[in-house]
């Protein structure tokens, strides 16, 4: 069985950098944006649209019943979200079958649970997430700390809802991970080689 | 400043073994039961009694007011709990001043926050905690899984209340730790040398 590492992460915690560096350290594949591109290719939806779908839990259409009888209503947006999620799950499974890899986000820990992935969660305190977001912000963007905090909180809330919708589990619950790493006071490139040692065959 | 490592842990997760092995790996002091002995020596209370106090949050005596005026009532049990906690905090601070060390439990992460300890939390799923407790049970003890689960849950509930009473923080909240390690599927003596590398000077 291939060695699969999944990374869950809070927005601004450096989880993506962590995952990329870890794959480089271990010399294995790294999947992140590639998954979006592949869904887009297979479904003929734009990458931008796919990205927007995989960042939100689908909203169940109302009413789900009329009068006293229940019957399924067809809602194209809801259906499309489910199609994208199913395609994403299929692609992630294919990637995991192909070779050792690191997969960031996208409920991969849940989708690949039968492959027994090593599940990492990367998190940080708000202060350092704000600092990291500010460092990575496009030039000229001048958001206040309060605005950045609102963005970070909103993004994590979306991730939590998305994860909980598809997996039924609480997002970020440490029981769903093998190790949780707080990046508030660490330099990611310094800790990655050590964590990689936990994963060497 | 000395290198201080604090270990919070769920009951049955192997946190104590983890701490002991980590101190051996790093060649530094390890404090656990020694703290109880030292409190006992300084307060002239029996080790057994001190142990029972440090495992429970003190219960605030009622009534705290009589008629319409508030005033502090003196309750010897409550006072004694506070004295033991203060003595414990003093001893832990002294130990941290003396040399590099690993300290298990006892709100040490909070007491020593100014020393910037490396804070580890060790946890596991219920199944593996039951298995570990069964392996360590005294010979002849025949508890069912249900009884063991009740014991584990009760002990962790006590720890949570104790921690929250003295620190004001949620027990086991990953934001209060630098790394959280799930021991459900790992062999502690195999992961300790790797974690030790995170801590080598």
Topology at a glance:
The structure is a homodimer of 201-residue chains.
Chain A lengths: L3 E6 L5 H12 L2 E3 L1 H11 L3 H8 L10 E2 L2 E2 L5 H23 L2 E4 L3 H4 L6 E6 L2 H11 L8 H23 L11 E4 L5 H12 L2
Parallel strand pairs in A: 1-5, 1-6, 2-5, 6-7
Antiparallel strand pairs in A: 3-4
Helix pairs in contact in A: 1-8, 2-3, 2-4, 6-7
The helix-strand sequence of chain A is EHEHHEEHEHEHHEH
Estimated helix fraction of chain A: 40-55%
Described by strand count, sense and barrel closure, the largest sheet of chain A is: 5 strands, parallel
Shape of chain A: globular
Q: Roughly how many Å is the radius of gyration of chain A? A: 18 Å
Query: Low-confidence parts of chain A lasting 5 or more residues at pLDDT below 50?
Result: none
The tally of beta strands of chain A, per DSSP, is: 7
Seen as an oligomer or otherwise, the chain set is homodimer
Q: What report would you give on this structure?
A:
Two copies of one chain form a homodimer. With 201 residues, chain A is α/β, with parallel strands linked by helices. Chain A is built from eight helices and seven strands; from the N terminus they run βαβααββαβαβααβα. In chain A, strands 2-5-1-6-7 form a five-stranded parallel sheet, with helices on both faces. The longest helix of chain A is centred in the middle third of the chain and has 23 residues, at 76-98. At the A-B interface, strand 7 and helix 8 of A face strand 7 and helix 8 of B. Strand 7 (179-182) of chain A pairs antiparallel with strand 7 of chain B.
């Amino acid at each position: 069985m291939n060695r699969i590492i999944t990374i869950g992460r809070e927005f601004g915690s450096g989880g993506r950098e962590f995952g990329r560096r870890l794959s480089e350290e271990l010399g294995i594949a790294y999947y992140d944006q590639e998954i979006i591109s592949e869904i887009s290719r297979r479904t003929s939806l734009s990458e931008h649209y796919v990205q927007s779908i995989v960042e939100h839990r689908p909203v169940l259409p109302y009413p789900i019943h009329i009068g006293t009888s229940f019957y399924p209503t067809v809602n194209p947006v809801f259906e499309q979200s489910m199609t994208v999620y199913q395609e994403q799950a299929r692609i992630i499974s294919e990637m995991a079958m192909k070779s050792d890899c690191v997969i960031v986000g996208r409920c991969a820990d849940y989708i690949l649970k039968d492959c027994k992935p090593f599940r990492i969660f990367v998190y940080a305190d708000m202060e350092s997430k704000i600092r990291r977001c500010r460092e990575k912000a496009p030039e000229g963007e001048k958001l206040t700390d309060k605005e950045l905090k609102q963005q970070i909180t909103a993004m994590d809330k979306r991730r939590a809802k998305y994860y909980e919708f598809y997996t039924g589990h609480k997002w970020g619950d440490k029981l769903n991970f093998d190790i949780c790493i707080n990046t508030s006071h660490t330099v990611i490139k310094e800790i990655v080689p050590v964590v990689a040692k936990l994963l060497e065959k």
